[in-house]
């Protein structure tokens, strides 16, 4: 079946259950940022544990979307993902190979340079600051890039289009919950994620290949890890 051929529709009830429910749960998870003692009180590192929770939630989202697709007679091809299981393993392996090579370079730069501790404390909390945190961040990025493109591009845009909603309007509709997928937002973060949601959506309409968007998404995620190099003098 061709990627742009839709023979049945995803009910709007299921579509909006995903587009409202998923980001709603993500926002609830982000409330942990306001009460970190719920995690640190257990003797756990906050961000490492927080990212593990998010990683598990990403996996659950992929599982739930797969069940919805199956229930409506859709496959991964219908949402723009055409890689076989074998190619998917190679695909993920390529990300891990690149990410851990990048990790080695970062660790070498940090160990051979003078780290400004004050700058390290001041940089964004989204930037992993320890080796363990960076490893967890890489694994989260692997699942996060796949999950968000499946949910907010492949599934959302194709499901909306299957209900005869204009494809460009579908891009905008899908971009809104993509913002709240990332939890609590400042004004700057709101516009950042809205912009990326629209950019990714437009690219999906033009390219019709979800794995290309996943690669771009991975690179954006990994840029947060590279940001730690700004603390090296």
Which structural traits does this protein have?
233 residues; single chain; globular
Largest sheet: none
Low-confidence runs: none
| Terminus-to-terminus distance | 55 Å
Number of helices: 9
Describe this entry's structure for a reader.
This protein is mainly α and 233 residues long. It has one domain (12-231). Helices cover 72% and strands 0% of the residues. The protein contains nine helices and no strands. It has helices at residues 12-30, 37-40, 46-71, 85-112, 117-122, 131-162, 167-180, 187-207, 210-226.
Structure summary:
The chain has helices spanning 12-30, 37-40, 46-71, 85-112, 117-122, 131-162, 167-180, 187-207, 210-226. It is mainly α and 233 residues long.
Topology:
Blueprint (H helix, E strand, L loop, with lengths): L11 H19 L6 H4 L5 H26 L13 H28 L4 H6 L8 H32 L4 H14 L6 H21 L2 H17 L7
């Amino acid at each position: 079946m061709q990627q742009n051929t839709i023979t049945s529709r995803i009910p709007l009830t299921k579509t909006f259950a995903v587009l409202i429910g998923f980001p709603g749960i993500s926002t609830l998870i982000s409330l942990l940022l306001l009460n970190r003692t719920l995690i640190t009180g257990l003797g756990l590192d906050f961000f490492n544990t927080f990212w593990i929770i998010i990683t598990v939630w990403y996996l659950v989202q992929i599982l739930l979307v797969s069940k919805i697709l199956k229930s409506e007679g859709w496959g991964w091809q219908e949402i723009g993902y055409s890689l076989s299981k074998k190619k998917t393993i190679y695909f993920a392996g390529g990300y891990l190979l690149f990410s851990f090579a990048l990790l080695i370079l970062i660790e070498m730069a940090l160990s051979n340079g003078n780290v400004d501790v004050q700058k390290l404390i001041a940089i964004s909390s989204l930037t992993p600051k320890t080796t363990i945190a960076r490893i967890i961040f890489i694994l989260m990025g692997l699942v996060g890039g796949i999950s968000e493109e499946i949910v907010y591009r492949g599934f959302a845009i194709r499901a909306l289009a299957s209900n005869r909603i204009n494809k460009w309007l579908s891009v905008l509709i899908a971009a809104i919950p993509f913002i709240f997928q990332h939890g609590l937002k400042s004004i700057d973060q709101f516009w950042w994620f809205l912009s990326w949601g629209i950019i990714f959506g437009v690219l999906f309409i033009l390219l019709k290949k979800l794995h290309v968007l996943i690669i771009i998404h991975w690179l954006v995620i990994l840029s947060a890890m590279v940001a730690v190099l700004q603390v090296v003098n």
